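4.2 Preliminary Data

To establish feasibility before requesting continued support, the project team ran the inverse folding procedure on a target of 355 residues. The structure was first converted into the token representation described in Section 3, and no sequence information of any kind was made available to the design step. The complete token record follows.
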């Protein structure tokens, strides 16, 4: 029996991949309903289509332009492949339904407490419940209890804060704001011409409040959640595995994790089915990309406003724009190499690593 804790995209997709091969899978979710509350901007690249077919009902909007703003400069990229704004509730529920149809059994309102030998202990509405298992997979988010069974290493987080606003905007343009007053960065993602998702990646709530207040839109909802920072996380110990946010499989440069969660789920399922080493398979296929995002984030954290102005100046060159507009940002290493060849002055920013 394989038990998966957490019915978000990572857990549900792992359950689906394992169950469809005939594995006995149980999927446990602490909430009473999958997909709520929403704690994600839901913006993904078309790379998601490598994993599953997206129905129109899962897509709120398509983004064809990205406008990057600094204190004194801005530039706009016309994307070759549109990015997608997901309806996360419907998307998450679809993944769970795929797992169930493949044979996985879903248990709602089951909060994982601890593991004792081969038994898992849950808090349910009817009290404590014990369930036997052979394999335990933690997909239980940033504050993963499963992760504590693998490593006691203290994790670091950054807070993603977002508001849904009624605000007139260009419906196909995603805006990013860079600078010290925006935290790691701030964003405006349109759901339509009259509705946006706007937020800030920062541990300083004041920056979020200031950013939202400047938009002068009518707030209809607040969303927030901690985002784990990837730091070469240990992914397995004996018959216990981690995937998704529980494994800190997050792009440190943007805080995004849906694509990497699905990629990691695929690696994990394959490792279990073929009795391979998950850590080694993950390191071979995805670790370098996540470390590249970590490096980008480390450099940007040391930027001043004038550095962001210079960055956007370089990015405004047509040969640089051509690369960014066609690149797969899920694979930053390849993109970074092309950017350095097109604009060698980008190398000047690496000195930030040694400050």
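Position-by-position output of the design step:
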């Amino acid at each position: 029996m394989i038990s998966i804790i957490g019915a978000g995209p990572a857990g549900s997709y792992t359950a689906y991949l394992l169950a469809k091969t005939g594995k006995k899978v149980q999927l446990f979710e602490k909430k009473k309903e999958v997909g709520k509350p929403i704690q994600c901007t839901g913006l993904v690249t078309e790379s998601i289509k490598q994993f599953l077919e997206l129905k129109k009902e899962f897509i709120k909007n398509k983004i064809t332009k990205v406008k990057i703003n600094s204190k004194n400069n801005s530039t706009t990229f016309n994307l070759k492949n549109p990015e997608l704004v997901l309806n996360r509730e419907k998307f998450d529920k679809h993944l769970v339904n795929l797992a169930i149809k493949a044979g996985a059994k879903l248990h709602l309102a089951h909060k994982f407490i601890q593991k004792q030998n081969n038994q898992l202990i849950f808090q349910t509405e009817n009290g404590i419940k014990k369930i036997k298992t052979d394999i335990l997979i933690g997909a239980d988010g940033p504050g993963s209890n499963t992760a504590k069974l693998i490593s006691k290493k203290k994790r670091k987080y950054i807070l993603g804060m977002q508001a849904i606003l009624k605000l007139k905007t260009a419906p196909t343009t995603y805006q990013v704001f860079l600078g010290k007053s925006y935290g790691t960065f701030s964003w405006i993602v349109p759901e339509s011409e009259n509705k946006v998702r706007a937020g800030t990646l920062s541990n300083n709530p004041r920056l979020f409040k200031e950013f939202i207040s400047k938009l002068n839109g009518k707030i209809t909802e607040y969303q927030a959640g901690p985002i784990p920072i990837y730091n070469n996380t240990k992914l397995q110990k004996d018959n216990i595995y981690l995937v998704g946010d529980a494994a800190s499989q997050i792009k440190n440069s943007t805080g995004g994790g849906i694509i990497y969660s699905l990629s990691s789920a695929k690696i994990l399922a394959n490792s279990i089915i073929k009795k391979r080493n998950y850590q080694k398979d993950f390191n071979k296929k995805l670790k370098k990309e996540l470390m590249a995002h970590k490096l980008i984030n480390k450099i940007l954290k040391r930027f001043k406003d004038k550095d962001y102005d210079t960055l956007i100046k370089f990015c405004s060159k047509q040969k640089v724009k051509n690369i960014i507009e066609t690149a797969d940002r899920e694979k930053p290493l390849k993109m970074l190499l092309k950017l350095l060849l097109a604009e060698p002055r980008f190398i000047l920013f690496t000195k930030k690593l040694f400050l």
